[in-house]
């Protein structure tokens, strides 16, 4: 059937790369960022130079890696992928920079987690296409400037606030990616379904979109589970029953909150009864890193109006209480 022949390989990475839009025109949503990027790329093409360095900021799964690939693809340039945590020493970065081909696009994911010494090397590389390589040790040590090929850096971060300003200032453009609207997520699902050869009706698409946490990666992942559900149930067409069945099985709630989102809501509503809670307390209560809570969980819960960030901490709103089926205390701020 259509559903069984849909995919050869079923691992997450193969699946993601098969679904990645290859051009700005194919990229759904984020219209402001798309237009801004287009101007940078078009101007560079007219002047026959490498595009300015670009920083992409926003929660995971919103399309940062995809956009980096598009920048390279639209400019007809190769792409080099690396990430902050793998750059532990300036030497690691020097090795990457000195091996770039002219015009190459260098993508550094989680750029806020790069070593400090590498950060300083990157300033010079971004500005002058040059690195200073240290030769020797002690009093006799000298630094030798080494020219590198002109390149475009595309940095990605979930925490733009964590980047030192000298680094931030060296990007020609900083794009803040926003969570997607449901109608845009429905387009993401529709596009993925077509690519996978799935037949899925519009209500099923809407139900999945509504529970995708504003995130294309999650939309694609849920679509895959719904596809499984239909496949195992012997259905060739995906309708709302298959969508709801799979979503229920995987405990995706009405607003698309995941396990960690719900744990945080429970702590704020049940344990602290709507009183403000500090980030470190919250992190300990759910056994998760503060970073993850701040960059991944909170932005979505705030956007849904379920929690509020106040000067005294994080607290559940009346809508947050309602989502857990609880009555808010009468003195709750909102
Ligand atoms: P990030 O780097 O921000 O974590 P990715 O670029 O890896 O996110 O995107 C995750 C997945 O979501 C990819 O498989 C990609 O196909 C899909 N995706 C992201 N943004 C879009 C978009 N605007 N349109 C269609 N698919 C998208």
From TrEMBL:
DNA binds at residues 309, 314. Residues 1-180 are annotated as: Large ATPase domain (RuvB-L). GO terms for biological process: DNA recombination; DNA repair. The keyword tRNA processing does not apply. Transmembrane segments: none annotated. One of its GO terms (cellular component) is cytoplasm. Residues 181-251 are annotated as: Small ATPAse domain (RuvB-S). Its EC number is 3.6.4.-. Mg(2+) binds at residue 65. It catalyses: ATP + H2O = ADP + phosphate + H(+). Keywords: ATP-binding, Cytoplasm, DNA damage, DNA recombination, DNA repair, DNA-binding, Helicase, Hydrolase, Nucleotide-binding. Residues 50-181 form the AAA+ ATPase domain. Residues 254-334 are annotated as: Head domain (RuvB-H). It is an enzyme of class 3 (hydrolase). ATP binds at residues 19-20, 61, 64-66, 127-129, 170, 180, 217. It is found in: Cytoplasm. InterPro entries: AAA+_ATPase, AAA_lid_4, DNA_helicase_Holl-junc_RuvB, P-loop_NTPase, RuvB-like_N, RuvB_wg_C, WH-like_DNA-bd_sf, WH_DNA-bd_sf. Pfam families: AAA_lid_4, RuvB_N, WHD_RuvB. HAMAP family: DNA_HJ_migration_RuvB (MF_00016). PANTHER family: HOLLIDAY JUNCTION BRANCH MIGRATION COMPLEX SUBUNIT RUVB (PTHR42848:SF1), PTHR42848. Belongs to the RuvB family. Has 3 domains, the large (RuvB-L) and small ATPase (RuvB-S) domains and the C-terminal head (RuvB-H) domain. The head domain binds DNA, while the ATPase domains jointly bind ATP, ADP or are empty depending on the state of the subunit in the translocation cycle. During a single DNA translocation step the structure of each domain remains the same, but their relative positions change. The RuvA-RuvB-RuvC complex processes Holliday junction (HJ) DNA during genetic recombination and DNA repair, while the RuvA-RuvB complex plays an important role in the rescue of blocked DNA replication forks via replication fork reversal (RFR). RuvA specifically binds to HJ cruciform DNA, conferring on it an open structure. The RuvB hexamer acts as an ATP-dependent pump, pulling dsDNA into and through the RuvAB complex. RuvB forms 2 homohexamers on either side of HJ DNA bound by 1 or 2 RuvA tetramers; 4 subunits per hexamer contact DNA at a time. This is Holliday junction branch migration complex subunit RuvB. It comes from Rhodoluna lacicola. The gene is ruvB.
């Amino acid at each position: 059937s259509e559903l069984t022949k849909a995919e050869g390989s079923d691992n997450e990475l193969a699946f993601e790369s098969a679904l990645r839009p290859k051009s700005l025109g194919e990229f759904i949503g984020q219209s402001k960022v798309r237009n801004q990027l287009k101007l940078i790329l078009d101007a560079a093409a007219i002047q026959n130079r490498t595009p300015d360095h670009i920083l992409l900021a926003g929660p995971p799964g919103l399309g940062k890696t995809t956009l980096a690939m598009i920048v390279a693809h639209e400019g007809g340039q190769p792409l080099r992928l690396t990430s902050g945590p793998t750059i532990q020493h300036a030497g690691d970065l020097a090795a990457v920079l000195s091996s770039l081909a002219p015009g190459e696009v260098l993508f550094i994911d989680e750029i806020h987690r790069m070593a400090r010494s590498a950060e300083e090397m990157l300033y010079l590389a971004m500005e002058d296409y040059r690195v200073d390589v240290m030769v020797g040790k002690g009093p006799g040590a000298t630094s030798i400037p080494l020219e590198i090929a002109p390149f475009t850096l595309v940095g990605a971060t979930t925490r733009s606030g964590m980047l030192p300003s000298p680094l931030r200032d060296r990007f020609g453009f900083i794009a803040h990616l926003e969570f997607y609207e449901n109608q845009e997520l429905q387009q993401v699902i529709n596009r993925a379904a077509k690519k996978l050869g799935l037949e899925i009706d519009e209500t099923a698409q809407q139900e999945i979109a509504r529970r995708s946490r504003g995130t294309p990666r999650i939309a694609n992942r849920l679509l895959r589970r719904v596809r499984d559900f239909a496949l195992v149930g012997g259905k060739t067409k995906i309708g709302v029953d298959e969508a709801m069945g799979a979503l229920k099985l995987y405990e995706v709630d009405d607003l698309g909150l995941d396990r960690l989102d719900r744990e945080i809501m429970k702590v704020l509503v049940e344990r602290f009864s709507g009183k403000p809670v500090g980030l470190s307390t919250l992190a300990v209560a759910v056994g998760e890193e503060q970073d993850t809570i701040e960059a991944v969980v909170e932005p979505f819960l705030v956007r849904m109006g379920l929690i509020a960030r106040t000067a005294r901490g994080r607290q559940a709103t009346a809508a947050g209480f309602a989502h857990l089926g609880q009555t808010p205390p009468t003195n709750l701020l909102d």
